[in-house]
Amino acid sequence: MTTFRLISAAVLSAALIFGQGQGGGRRPGGTPPDPATMIQNRVDHLGTLLGLSDSQKAGAVKIFTDAQAAVQAATADAAATHDALAAAVKKNDIVAIDQAAGTLGTIHGKVMSIQSKAEAAFYALLTPDQQAKFDALPHRGPGGMGPGGMGPQGMHTGPGGMARPNW
Asked: Are 67 and 158 within 8 A, CB to CB?
């Protein structure tokens, strides 16, 4: 359970870090930007770093927006499953612990798959020169999306500043 909480904390932290643009990712009043704004901030940042064309930026926004929606759908039941896991721990219900942990592992795997596919689609948009620049950026673990990227991985927060999972 400690590993799960560590991964969950990393995911939530990375979602906040990932969405930060040059202005710190916050609007006046301290509220975080919505997912669309985080995606746009991320694409703008990548555009500056890699010299993306307008059509590449539009493609990146679509890729990251579609991935964001897929992650939200994949994580829709995560909060209830996490609650079931916590209840099973309190009851020492080993079977229910295994079931809930397995479900959360499946969700984690789906999220990693969605985000890795989005990163692959984004990478395919880049010219060879841009790919070389992208490859030279400091990445955040396996499949991490460069500076401020997909997060301290093992677990991606998602391309384009995806909203945090509901767990």
From this structure: yes
101-146: pLDDT as tens digits: 999 999 999 999 999 999 999 999 999 999 999 999 887 544 455 4
The predicted model scores a pTM of 0.66
Cβ neighbours of residue 99 under 8 Å, at least 6 residues apart? 88
Q: Give me the amino acid identity at 126.
A: L
SS3 string, 32-93, reads CCCHHHHHHHHHHHHHHHHCCCHHHHHHHHHHHHHHHHHHHHHCCCHHHHHHHHHHHHHHCC
Given a cut of 90, is residue 26 above it in pLDDT?
no
Q: Residues in the chain, how many?
A: 167
CB 158 within 8 A of CB 115: yes
